[in-house]
From TrEMBL:
Keywords: Repeat, Signal
Organism whose genome encodes this protein: Triatoma dimidiata
PROSITE patterns: REELIN (PS51019), SPONDIN (PS51020)
Record-level GO BP terms: cell adhesion
Every Spondin domain range: 180-201
Protein name: Putative spondins extracellular matrix
Limits of the Reelin domain: 12-179
Signal peptide (from-to): 1-23
Organismal lineage: Eukaryota, Metazoa, Ecdysozoa, Arthropoda, Hexapoda
Length: 201
């Protein structure tokens, strides 16, 4: 009898563990449906932040774009899909800021990965954009990385043109003046001599 109770308890624990694991999304940045290994990225596809800042200011909003470069004199490189992710460097567990959709029908939030935007359809595109609000002060560096799917069996991921590391602007934080909160107190005595003069007509 005790053995049956122990067996049922073990089955219950295994069932709960399986349900919990299914509930945790698996973040796989390999394009769905492809069996080909990734190719080395070249300069035809680039990840950029508008204005090309060297650092970020906490709480500020930035425009992030993934674009295809020229393939000839007039033709721009196009892609059918993408995955854009932002993470904190060193995986500290701090939130890396917030990504927002730019308002077009080409993008959507990923169902599998946090802080990730992906393509909504496989139509050919030359550029996609997203908005990003920088994290609060003290977060440290963040890393943007993109996966570009040129076609089903040709994709690129994480090489230098598709990766940006952006760190907090520590100079701006140190330049902020602390709030002056001195108590005004007149504690000493003073003597004044006042003379009033008037002109009477």
């Amino acid at each position: 009898m005790a053995r049956q109770g122990l067996f049922k308890l073990l089955l219950l624990i295994l069932a709960c563990w399986a349900v919990r694991n299914d509930a945790v999304p698996k973040c796989d940045k390999v394009p769905e449906g492809t069996t080909a290994p990734k190719s080395r990225a070249d300069s035809r596809f680039t990840l950029e932040i508008l204005g090309k800042p060297q650092t970020y200011s906490p709480g500020e909003m930035y425009t992030v774009s993934l674009k295809g470069g020229p393939r000839g004199s007039t033709i721009m490189a196009r892609f059918i899909g993408f995955i854009l992710t932002v993470e904190t460097a060193g995986r500290t567990g701090a939130a890396p800021g917030t990504l927002y959709l730019f308002g077009d029908s080409l993008t959507k939030f990923s169902d599998d990965c946090p802080n990730t935007i992906t393509h909504a359809s496989p139509v050919l595109k030359t550029e996609v954009q997203a908005l990003w609000t920088a994290p609060p002060q003290g977060t440290g560096c963040v890393v943007f990385s993109a996966t570009v799917i040129e076609r089903k069996d040709l994709w690129y991921q994480g090489d230098k043109p598709l990766s940006i590391t952006l760190c907090e602007d520590l100079q701006q934080s140190s330049d902020e003046q602390p709030e002056v909160n001195q108590q005004c107190c007149a504690c000493d005595e003073a003597k004044y001599e006042v003379t009033f003069e008037g002109l009477w007509s």
